[in-house]
Amino acid sequence: MASPEAVTPTRRTPRRNPANAPGYRHARTPVANKIDTPSTRLDQQLTKGLRLGGTATGGCGRVEHGRVDNARGREVPGGRESAGQANYLELFFDLVLVFALNGVVTRIVPSLTSEDVATRWPSLFATVVLALPLLWLWTTTGHITSRFDPRQRKIQLMVLASAFGMMIMSTSLPYAFFGRGMAFVLPYVLLQVGRPLLLIRALPAGGPVRAIYTRSAIWFAGSAVLWIGGALVKDERRLALWAAAITVDLIGARLGWPVRGMPRLLVSAWAVERGRHLPERYQQLLLIALGETVLAVGIAYTNAPVTTETTVGLVTAYVTTVLLWRVYFHRSGEMLGAAVDAVANRSMFGRVAGAAHIVMVLGIVATAIGYEIVQQHALDRPYPVWIVLILGGPALFLYGRIRLERVVFDRLSRRRVVAIVTLALAMFPLAFTNTLVASIAAAAVLIGVAVADSRHSAVRPPETPSPPA
C-alpha cells in the first residue's frame, strides 16, 4: 500500500507501448492531446493552481483533483486512477454489513411469528425501514471509495468510521423501536452529514464534486430532524418518522439533492467512472447478502431440533441461495464491469444499477427471513405475511435483476417476468399448504429460470454489453 503522504506527479509520461501496459485504460491522457471541449476546458479551470494527484469523475468529463490545493494549503483526496479494485479495508467494511443484515433478520423474525396479526404486518414494513439506512450507508460509502483513492489516509479513516458506525447501528437493532433508537440514528446522521463536510473542506472551491457534497450535506442535515425526532418517540410514531426520513434521503439522492439558490450541478452525483471498482463493489454486495442468508439459515438450523423437515428446509434454503447467485451472475451480473466501459450515459447507468442492487438485496433479505421461519415452522400452515416473504423475496430479487438486465443489455428479460407472475399466482394455493412446501415451490421457480437461462445461452454466442443510449 502506497504511503498516504506521497504526492503523485503532476503528469504521467505515457508508456511507449500502451497496449502492453497494465491498467493503461485508466492512465491519464496528456493535456496536449485532449480535444478542446467544454468538458476539458472545465477540467483545466478546476485544476489550475493545483498539484494534480488523482481523479474524481462526474457526468461531463474527468474532474481532476490534486493531492494539495496550493491556494488553500489543504490536502485533497486523490482519485482512483491507480486503485481500480476494492481494497482490503472495503472488504472489512463488508463484513460489518453481514453482521448488520443478520441483525435485521434476527430482529424481525420474532415479530413475524407472533400470534398477534397487528404485529406481523407492521414488522414487514419495519424490515424495510431498518434495512434501507444500512444499505444506503453502504452505497454512499461505495461511491466515496469509487470517486476517491481508498489508499489515502482520509478515505481510510472515513471507511473505518463508517464500519464502526454501522456496527453501532447493528447492535441497536433488537431494541430499535422501543429502546435504543438514538444509537441507531446518531451514527447514520453523523456519517451522512459529517463525511460530506470533511470532503467539502478538502476539495477545491468551485469544483463540481464539491458542489455535490455540499448539496448532499444540506439534504442529510434536513432529514436528520426526522431521524432524531423519531428516536425521541416510540413504536408506530418512530416507525413513521424513520420511514419519512429514509424516503427523503432516497428521493433527494434520486433528484441530485436540489437546493434552491444553488446553480445546476455540472456533474452527476451517480455517474460511474470508466473502471471496474463500483461494479465489483455491487457484485460483492450481492455476495454479502447471499452470505448472510447462509449464515441466518445455518444458525437457525443449529439452534433447532434436527428433524427431516428442518433438514429439507436447510437443503432448500441452500439450493435457493445458489440459484439466486446463478441467476444474478448469468450474463448481466457477470458483464456489469464491461457494461461500464460501453455505456454512454454513465449517470443513468449508475443510478439504475445502484437501485437494482438495493432491490435485489432487499429480496435476498426477505428470502432469508422466510427460510428462518421455515426452520421454526416447517409443517405449519403459513400466515399470509409468511407467504409474502417466502415467495415475494425471490420475486423482488427477480424484479431487481430485470432492471439490471435492462441497463446492461437494454432488453426485457421475459423469463424473469414469467417467474414473477408464477410466484404471485402461486401465493394463494400455497397459503393452504405449509411453509416447507412453499419454500420448495419458490426454489422450483428459480430452477426454471436458471435452466431457461442455460438453454438460452447454449444456442447463442457470447454476448457483449449493449447499454441503452
Describe the secondary structure blueprint for this structure.
Layout: H1 38-47, E1 50-57, E2 62-69, E3 74-75, H2 88-112, H3 117-147, H4 153-171, H5 181-202, H6 208-231, H7 235-254, H8 277-303, H9 308-333, H10 336-342, H11 346-376, H12 384-409, H13 414-430, H14 435-458
Antiparallel strand pairs: 1-2, 2-3
Helix pairs in contact: 2-3, 2-4, 2-8, 2-11, 3-4, 3-7, 3-11, 4-5, 5-6, 6-7, 8-9, 8-11, 9-11, 9-12, 9-14, 11-12, 12-13, 12-14, 13-14
Net shape:
globular
Order of helices and strands: HEEEHHHHHHHHHHHHH
- CATH overall fold name of the largest domain: I/LWEQ domain
Number of strands: 3
Are there runs of 5+ residues with pLDDT below 50, and where?
Answer: 1-76
Largest sheet entry: 3 strands, antiparallel
When the domains are counted, the total is 2
CATH architecture of the largest domain: Up-down Bundle
Seen as an oligomer or otherwise, the chain set is single chain
Biggest sheet strand line-up: 1-2-3
Using the coordinates above, name the CATH class of the largest domain: Mainly Alpha
Number of helices: 14
Summing up helix and strand content along with how strands pair, one would put the structural category as mainly alpha
The percentage helix is 55-70%
The average pLDDT score comes to 83
Radius of gyration: 23 Å
The CA-CA distance between the termini, in Å, is 38 Å
